């Protein structure tokens, strides 16, 4: 559970002041929330629960401005993507999940993941 949460939070939040400390703290908070949620969870694969809680925790605790900052790092461009495309990029590239696992987490088909990833990459290339 820990490495996946840390990779996800680092991919979503990026480095702050040349370190991942803030992202690691958010991952730790998400881990605590997962431990609280597990006993009563019956909504599908554990990886889906992990993603839902990590995404919500990052959204709540990330103090980034609402508009995307200028720059070329992936983490700076991600907020400009639609939520599904952003989630797919973070799960596929930042966390290293397969297309099938990403589809399982997001409750969509692998084909939808591939199409949305292609769209996200096209958008990101246009922003660079």
TrEMBL record:
RNA polymerase sigma factor 70 region 4 type domain location is 73-124
Q: Which Pfam families match?
A: Sigma70_r4_2
- Cite the GO molecular-function annotations of the record: DNA binding; sigma factor activity
InterPro entries from the UniProt entry: RNA_pol_sigma70_r4_t2, RNA_pol_sigma_r3/r4-like, WH-like_DNA-bd_sf
Q: What GO terms in the biological process aspect are recorded for it?
A: DNA-templated transcription initiation
Q: Which UniProt keywords apply?
A: Sigma factor, Transcription, Transcription regulation
Q: Which family does it belong to?
A: Belongs to the sigma-70 factor family. ECF subfamily.
This one is known as RNA polymerase sigma factor 70 region 4 type 2 domain-containing protein
Which source organism does the UniProt entry give?
Answer: Amycolatopsis acidicola
Q: What taxonomic lineage is listed for the species of origin?
A: Bacteria, Bacillati, Actinomycetota, Actinomycetes, Pseudonocardiales
